[in-house]
Protein 1
Amino acid sequence: MKEVLQPGPAEALSSLLDVEMPDLERDGLPLLWHWFYLLDRPAQADLGPDGHPVRATIPAPPEPGRRRMWAGGRVRTLGPLLCGLPATRRTEVLSVQEKQGRTGRLTFVVTRHEIVQDGRVVVDEEQDLVYRDAASRPAEPATEEPEVPVAEGEWAIDVSPTLLFRFSALTYNAHRIHYDRDYVRDVEGYPGLLTHGPLQALAMAEAARRRGSGGELAFDYRLVSPLFDHQGMVVRAEAGADGTVTAVRDRHGRRTATGTVRSLVR
Ligand SMILES: CC(C)(COP(=O)(O)OP(=O)(O)OC[C@H]1O[C@@H](n2cnc3c(N)ncnc32)[C@H](O)[C@@H]1OP(=O)(O)O)[C@@H](O)C(=O)NCCC(=O)NCCSC(=O)C[C@](C)(O)C(=O)O
C-alpha cells in the first residue's frame, strides 16, 4: 500500500485530542501518528457481524465468531515520517498463539508493519491482537469505587461517544464495539462502549511527547483491562529507570493500559 502523506489526518487528530501540531515537513509525524495513514479500505461486503473485515484482510480472524481486541504492541521509529512525500506500508502475520487466560481461550495474533519512506524503514511495528471465544466470560465491569481526583501531571480525557466515533472515523475502523451500544451489550456482553486500544496507546505516547520525548523512539505497551465510555480516561507519563513510563486509568483508579517510551539514541 502506498500514498503521499497529507497533513489532513494529522490536523484532525490534533483537533480531536487538542494536542500540538508538529512541523510535519521538517520533523515528521510524532510517535504513533502513522496510524492515520496508509489505511486498509475493505469492501463493505467483506465486513463481518462485528464490523471488521472477515476476508481479504491481514490478519483474517482465526475462526468465525471470535471477539477481536487490541492487546498491545511494540513500535520503533527509526527516522522521520514526513508529510508531502510518498510512503509504503508492508504487513505480515508474525505468529498465532493459543493461550488460556483468566477470561477463557485466547488466540494471540501478532502482525508486523513496516513503513518505508525514501528507501528506508522509518516505522517498524508489531501489533498484538487477541481473539476471545464468544462464550468466554467478558472482563468484569468496574466496581463503584470512589473517584480518584486527577493529580498534577495527569491528563483527563472525556471519553464520549463523539470522541470514540471520531477516532474510529480517523482510522477507518468499523468495529461496532466502539459505537454500537446495543451490539456491545447484547452480543459481546460489555457494560459500555469500548475505548480503542490505539486511542489509549496514542494518549500515552502524547503524554510522553508533552514531557519532551521525540526523535527515534521505542514504545512498548499493553492494554490490560477494558476501558468503557462511562469510566473516563486519565493518562500519565513520568520518568522511569528505562525511559518514560506511561499509564491509563479510569476515573476510579483502575489501570487499563501501561507502556514505556525509550529513546533509541544513546
Ligand atoms: C488481553 C486480555 C483479553 C487478556 O485477558 P485475560 O485476563 O484472560 O489474560 P491473562 O489471564 O491475564 O493472561 C493469559 C495469557 O495472555 C497473555 N496476555 C495477557 N494480556 C496480554 C496482552 N495485553 N498482550 C499480550 N499478551 C497478553 C499473558 O501474558 C498470558 O500469557 P502466558 O500464559 O504465556 O503467561 C485482557 O487483558 C483485556 O481485556 N485487555 C484489554 C483489551 C482492550 O480493552 N483493548 C482495547 C479495546 S479493543 C480495540 O481497540 C480493538 C480495535 C482497535 O477496534 C481493533 O479491532 O483493531
Protein 2
Amino acid sequence: MNIFSLEQIREADRLTILNQNISSDELMERAGARVFEWLHGRLQGNAVRIHVFCGVGNNGGDGLVIARLLMESEYNVKVYIVDFSEKRSPDFLLNLDRIKNMKHWPEHFNGDKGEELPDIKREDIIVDAIFGVGLNRAPSGWVGKLMEHINATGAFVLSVDMPSGLFMNTVPEKGSPVIQAAHTLAFQSPKLVFFLPGTGIYTSSWEILDIDLDKEYLRNIQPEAVFIEKSEALSLYIPRKKFSHKGTYGHALFIGGSYGKIGAVYLSAKACLTSGAGLVTTYMPRCGYSILQTALPEAMVLTDANEEHISTIAFDLEPKVIGIGIGLGKHRATVDAFKAFLQKNSTPLVIDADALNILSENPELVQRVPAKSVLTPHPKELERLIGTWKDDMEKLEKGKAFAKEHDLVLVVKGAHTIVIYNEKLYVNSTGNPGMATGGSGDVLTGMITGLISQGYTPVNAAVFGVYLHGKAGDIAVSNTGYEALTAGGIIDYTGDAFLDLFARPEHQEAGQEAG
Ligand SMILES: NC(=O)C1=CN([C@@H]2O[C@H](COP(=O)(O)OP(=O)(O)OC[C@H]3O[C@@H](n4cnc5c(N)ncnc54)[C@H](O)[C@@H]3O)[C@@H](O)[C@H]2O)[C@@H](O)CC1
Ligand SMILES: [K+]
C-alpha cells in the first residue's frame, strides 16, 4: 500500500475534482459519507451521545458533513466549532449553513469568551475533525487546552484523516497538544507519521477509507513510502525451481562470534538456512567450533587461529554473500582483521552489530563497503553511524542521505522497521513487542543474508526479510505469548511465515494496529 506525501495528496485532490468533474464540496461530501458509513455500520442507530469537534478548514468541513449525516439518521449529535482562525474554508462555511438549515446550532469556541469546557462522559463518542493534513503550526493555547480536555474525557475518540495536532512532515514539539485517538480513519492512504515511534503513539489503530482520489495520478507517482503487507511481500517472493540444487541457492558465509557470543552466529546461520540458502559456512574463533558443529550440523565451520576472538579473516571459498558482525566483539585484533578484510573484499555484505560499531568508530571505512550492502542497525547503532537527530523525520532524512551517498541499503529497526534504499522508504507491517528479545536481530541478519544468497536483490532481501521476520514473530506469539517468545522461536516459525504468503487472501486493512 502506498503512503503519499502532503503535496501528493493535495495534487490528487485537485486532479480528482478536475477529472471527475465534481466540485470540492462534492469530494468533501464523499469523504464525510465514508466516515458516516463506518460509524453507522458499527452503531446501528445506537443512542450514544456523539460530540463532533470541527475546525474551520476542510477537516472541520468533513466533520460537519459527518455530523449532518448522523443527524439525518437521528443520532444523538452535538457539534462544536473550534474557531481557531478567521480564515474559514469555503466548503466549511457551506456545510455550516447546511447544519444550521437543520436547526442545529453548533457551540462555538474562539478562546476569548472563556467558554466552559464541554461536558463529555466516558461512554460518549468524540469525532475529532479539528485539524487534518493542513496543520502547519502548533495549535494556540486555548485550542490546545480544549484538545487536552478531549483527551482527558476517556471517551472513544475517532480522528478524521489524522489525529489533530499531528503534522504531515514534521514531529510536534514536546508539549504541543495532540489528540490521542482510539482509532483514525485516514482518507485514501495512511500517513507516514502513523509508523514513527514519536507520532505513531497518537493513534491506537487506523484504517484507510477509499475516497476514489484520481487513480491514474496516484498509480504513476513515486509515493513517499510503501507499506509492506502480504501482497507486497508476495510480489517479491522468488519461487523455487524444480530442477535446482543447493548451488542454485547460493553459499552464504557468516563472520562473527567471540567467546561467550557464539550463540549469535548459531542464530544467524540457522535463520539463513531456514530462509532457504543453499549452503552456509561460519567463520569464527576456535572456541565456537564444537558448539556450532553440534548445534547446527547443516552448517560448515571454519575457524580463526585464535581461540576466543577473530584475529585474521581468511578463507578459501567464494561466498555469494557475507553476513558479518554478529557476536564479533571489538578486540583490537578483530578490528584490525575487519579493516584488512574490507580492503580486499568485494562480496556484498550484510553488516550487523559490532561490525557496525567498528564502522561508526572509523567512518573512513564506510567507503570500503561494497555498494548495495545491507546495514541493519538498531537505534543506538544507527545514531553512531549517522549522528543524532532531532526527531523521527530528521532520522529518516539523514538515513536517506547516508544510504544514497554510499549506495547502501539501510534497515532502520523499530516497531515498524523501515528499509531505506535509493531515496525510497519501505515501511514494514509485521512484528510485535515479543520480538524485543536478545538474538532477534541476529535472526534478521541471517534471514536477509539467506535471501541474498538465493538471488534476491539486496534491497528486496532486506524488505522481504524484515517482513518474514516480523510475520514469523507474529505467528509465534499466537502460540507462545509475548513474554515467552525467543529468537529461536522466530526461526521455528519462519516456515509458517512463508506458507502464510499463500494462505487465504489478505484480510481488509481494517483494524490495523499502529505502533
Ligand atoms: N484530498 C483529500 O484527501 C481530501 C481532504 N479533505 C479534508 O481536508 C483536510 C485538509 O484540509 P485543510 O487543508 O483545509 O486543512 P485543515 O483542516 O487540516 O487545517 C485548517 C487550516 O487552518 C490553518 N492552520 C494550520 N495550522 C493552524 C493553527 N495551528 N492554528 C490556526 N490555523 C491553522 C491552515 O491554513 C489549514 O489549512 C484533510 O485532512 C481532510 O480531512 C476532504 O475534505 C476531502 C478530500
Ligand atoms: K482530525
Protein 3
Amino acid sequence: MVVDAPAKPVRFEFKNCSYRVKVRSDGRGLGNTPACCVKTKDRYLLRNVSASVSSGEVLAVMGPSGAGKTTLLRMLALEKGPGTPYGNVTLNGHAFTRTVYTAHAASVEQEDSLWAFLTAREQLEYAVRLSRPALRSAERAAAVDELLGALGLESCQHTRAGNALVRGLSGGQRRRLSLALALAKEPLLVFLDEPTSGLDAAGAAAVMALLKSVARRVNAAILCTIHQPSSAVFAGFDKTLILSGGRAAYCGPASELVGYLASIGQPVPANTNPADHMLSIANADFTDASLVEEIIAQWSSKQPPPQTEEADCGSEQQPAGAGVATQFGVLLHKHGRLLLRDPIMYSARCVIFVVISLFLSIIYIDTRRRDSQEQLFPRLFLEAPTMGALPAAGAWWISNIAPALGLLPLLAQFLDLQILRRELRDGIYHPAVYVAAQTLLQAPIGGRALHTRRRAASLHALPPCVIFAFTLAAFDCLAQAWFLGLLMNGFMMPPEDIIWPIRIFAYALPLRWQIQGSTYILWAMGDHTYGGTERCVFNATGEGECSQGFFCPDAPPTSCYGETGEEILDSFAANYSCFTSENTVALCMLYILLFALVCKLVYALALSAVRGGKMVKPPTTPPCLGSADPSSPAHPGPRRVQPFATR
Ligand SMILES: Nc1ncnc2c1ncn2[C@@H]1O[C@H](COP(=O)(O)OP(=O)(O)OP(=O)(O)O)[C@@H](O)[C@H]1O
C-alpha cells in the first residue's frame, strides 16, 4: 500500500477547552465595532469541553445549531477567530502548535476549495509533489492512484473541479477530492467541518463510511463535525461528543449513548434515532431550558477530574516538505497551467488589451501627423511611433488602462484566496515562493501587451516593456491605488497642490514614473522632429519675441510646443510636473521596481497572516513525535492555546 500507516499511533486530546468572545453589554455581537469603543462583557461560546481521538478513530462532534461545533473545530485546528481560546490541546502529550499542525495535521473545510481548472488527478499530483518530494515519479503516480482509489475518484480523475461558472465534479466528488487532498500529505490528524453537508442520506452515509475506512487504512485520527446523522451513520461513529450551548452533554462511544440516556432518565423512544433524540433534548431553542441544563449537569457530574498523561513522543520520521527550488518549480508549472486554462487570468486580459488598443488607435488616428503642432498634445494620449497598420495606444491611456487590467487577476486571486489559505495552512509551500512564481508568470503579459503596442522591434522597446511589466505587476498587488494614481500622477493635479501626508501618494505611486519614463523614451529618444515651428530671429540688440527659441506661425502660443522631443517635453513640463526633458528613465524604472517589490512583500506577508502561522517550513526536529518540546509544560493546566494567537 502506498499510503502507509505511520509506525506509531497518535492521540489528540483537548481538555477544558473554552472560547471567549466580547459582546456588547446588552448581549448583541460587536460586529465591526472595536471592543474599546463600546461597553462589553464576556461571552463563552465553549466551556470546559474535553475529548480525545486516537489513530484509526473518528470523533464526531454533534449538537444542535449554534451549539459551538464549528467554534470548537476551528479552535482546535488553530484557526484565527474573533475571540480567545483557552484550554489544553495536545498531540501525544505535547502542545499542539502551528508547527505541529503544519507537520502532522490537515483540514477539510465546509466549503470545498479546489482549483476550478485543474482535474482531480492534477490537483492530487501537485499536492503529492509538494508534500512528499522524496517520491520518485512512479511512486508519486502510485500514491495518486492509491488516493484516487481510496476515495472512489478513479472514474472522474480527468474531470476538472469546476466552480459556479464552469461545470466540473459533482458535489460529492468535490467533497471526496477535498478529503483526498488533505490526505495527500499523510497527516496523522484530520479536521473536517461538516463533511456531509449538502449530501443526501445515502451520500452522507457513504462519506462517513469512507471516513471510517480511511481513518483505519491510513491510521489517521479524524475529528469532524456533523449536523444530523442518520441512525446508520451515527452507529458507525467510534466516538461522539455532543455539545449543547457550548458545553458537553455527552462524550463517548456512540454505541453507549442509548444506555447512558436511559441511565439519566431520558430513554430513547422506540424506533427513534438516538442521535435525533439526544439533539432534540439538548436543544435549548426548542426544549425546556431547565431540562437542557439538567442533562448537561448530569454529564458534567459523571466526569472524573482531568488527569495529566505522560508525554508519548515516539520516533516517527518528520515528513520532509519540498525545498524552495522544488516548490518554485511545481508552483510555476501549476499556475502556468492555470493561467492558460483560466480565461480570467490571461486570455481575457489579452483580448481586452487588444480591443482597447484598437479602439484608442482609431480614435487618435489623426495624431500620426507630424507636421502640425496642434496634434502634439493629443499625441501624448496616443503615441504611434511605428505608423503601422495597428498604431497602438500611447503613454497616457496605456498607463492608466493597463493597471486597471491588473484588477482582473487580482479578482481571480481573491476568489482563489480560500484555496491558497488551505494550501498554505497545510504548509506545502512558502507564501514568498508562491508570490515569486506568480510574479514570474505575470511578466509575459506585460511583454505581450507591449508587443501589441510596438509592432516593429527596436532597441527602445525594451525599457518601456520593463517599465510596463513592472507597473502591471505593481498594480496587480495594489489595485485600490489605481484611482489614486490616476489622480495624483502629476497630470491632473500638481503634487505641490496636494496636502501632506496625502502628497506622498503623488511620489510613491508608480503611474507618475511610468508616464515620465515612457514619454521620455517615446519623445526624446531618437531623432524625430515635428513641424509647424520656426526658429526665432533676434534683432541686433538681442531682444527676441520668443523666449523658448522657436515660435509657431500657424498656431496660437498655447499650442506651440517645439520642434524636437526635448523642446516639446520642456513645454509640457511647464504645465505638468510629471514630464521632464531630462533622461530619468533608469530612475523611473528603479522607483517602479521598488514599488513592485514592496507590494509583493506586503502580499507575501498578507498571505502569511492569512495562513495564520509564521513560516511554511516543515521543522527538521518536530516538537512532538520526534523530540520533546521544551516549551511544553510538564503539568499542562489550563492555558491559552498559543497558536491561535500569532506564533
Ligand atoms: N463573534 C461572535 N460573537 C458572538 N457570538 C458568536 C460569534 N461567533 C459565533 N457566535 C455564536 O456562537 C455560537 C456557536 O456558533 P457555531 O458556529 O460554532 O455553532 P454551530 O454548532 O457550528 O452551528 P451550526 O450547526 O448552525 O453551524 C452561535 O450561537 C453563534 O451565534
